[in-house]
Amino acid sequence: MTGGESESQAHGAANGEFSSTQASATPVPAPGETVAQLSEALAAAQAKADENHGLYLRALAEMENVRRRTQDDVSKAHKYAIETFAESLVPVFDSLEKALDDASANPGALREGVEITLRQLRSAFERGRLTEINPVGEKFDPNRHQAISALPGDGTVPANHVLTVLQKGWLISDRVLRPALVTVVQAA
Question: What is the DSSP string of 108-130?
Answer without folding.
Answer: HHHHHHHHHHHHHHHHHHHHTTE
